Amino acid sequence: MEPIEIAKGIYNVGAVDWNIRDFHGYSTHNGTTYNAFLIVDEKIVLIDTVKKPFFDQLIENISRIVDPRKIDYVISNHTEMDHSGGLPRVMHRIGEDKPIYCSKIGEKNLAKHFSQKWNYQAVENGGTLSLGRRTLQFLETRMLHWPDSMFTYLVEDKILFSSDGFGQHYAGPEKFDDQVGDAIMIHAKKYFANILLLYSANVLKLMETVNEFGLEFNMICPDHGIIWRKDPKKILDAYVEWSQQKSGQKVLVVYDTMWNSTEQMAEKIAEGVSREGVEVRPMNLRHCHRSDVMTEVMDARAVVIGSPTLNNNVFPTVSDFLTYMKGLKPKNKIGAVFGSYGWSGEAAGVIKSELEGMKFTMIDPGLKIQYVPDQEGNEACIEFGRKIGKAVKT
Ligand code: FEO
What is the per-residue burial (b if ≥16 Cβ within 10 Å, else e) of 45-68? Predict the structure, then answer.
């Protein structure tokens, strides 16, 4: 990616990772970007770096604008290595004594990541740094999504550099929201569902702070994906909605299958839900990535999970998904369980316990069918689906 001037004297000098398809367990079908921002004022500042293998792209982009040695300050909004991995080589290039502005926890975390005694300048929430004609203000955003996370606000231009917040794993020809349109929202939603959902309360608190400080945004620049310049309010409003964890009348049927019996049950359950006039989406975990399923969980009212019993337990893919979902702490969900079994049939009970542990409202003890569902079994599944459909309508 060439550097892009996003506003006068402000550049995205980051890198595009076209081919990444697995971002620590999150499927990135469209790759991603590691945005980093250079502000050229009386002082020159670099906000964040890039993942380590992309250092050359970063430094080439910076060099097209200024000699990297002229950078006066580095801002580290977040320690995670997709934004800090390039930092050691950046510091070596620009001068090891240059100040790095970060949160207090950021200072500790950078030291633990890189074992370097750099010139850390820990900032206060609301603290400022003058660049000459312009001013940076730092906003502590602890647990959005790491303890060290902070945002940086360019006061005069009303531009927010929001680290992971409002990001999307998306690499494409478009660089701004007005170029890609609403198609970007599914990527933003997936990002929220898989990275930020468990911090929903912190997001709502952040929105209150934004209102309290009366902050206005001409542009929101996340470290991943496109920049919001046409309608920053769109993503702010979406974050409020997603954080509230309200859901429509949607049922998700998540399952895996050994000999298609649990799949047959899933399809009949979905048929029953549909007969109640409720939207339903079956997702087979062998074909749907956990992070795509989680995106659908976010606005589903009911999550119905099915597994065959394998060696007295749940199928490994189902176990994987339960672990993943548990960590993301979805709220306000109805739960139900089902599965085919041969002789012992523990899987449904194991899943039920897991969902109860996640505070799902269970509407049924669960539907288990031995071996292959016959006509009576199919009808039981349809009835089970109708019961779920009715529950989400109340
Ligand atoms: Fe994009 Fe939390 O790193």
Answer: bbbbbbbeebbebbbebbeebeeb
